[in-house]
Design brief:
The protein is mainly α and 92 residues long. It folds into 2 domains: 5-45, no CATH class; 47-87, no CATH class. Helix content is 76%, strand content 0%. The chain contains 5 helices and no strands. Helix 1 (5-21) packs across helix 2 (30-45) and helix 3 (47-61) crosses helix 5 (73-87). The protein is rod-shaped.
């Protein structure tokens, strides 16, 4: 993940504070809202890590074929990652 969990927590707290100050949301359970925002941010930010892990699993399965055909691992990684991002409708 690009950011540390502590920074994601900071972003969540700051986002909730900004939304409350701007009167976009109203809540009496601010910590609960911050926790839900934190969870959502963390899930979105870790999506690329999960996609990278899935790409590695796929390429491991085709490793022998790639070796025979002379395919570049880095090029195949980019292609498979792009396809998975499209499949999951992710913006990376």
């Amino acid at each position: 993940m690009i950011f540390s969990r502590e920074y994601v927590g900071y972003l969540a707290r700051h986002t909730v504070k900004h939304l409350i100050d701007a009167k976009v949301i109203k809540t009496v359970k601010r910590p609960a809202v911050e926790e839900r925002v934190y969870t959502g941010l963390l899930e979105e930010l870790s999506l690329e890590d999960r996609i990278n892990d899935e790409v590695r699993v796929i390429l491991d399965a085709y490793q022998e074929e790639m070796r025979r055909t002379g395919a570049s691992y880095s090029e195949m990684f980019k292609k498979v990652k792009t396809e998975l991002a499209r499949k999951y409708k992710a913006v990376l």
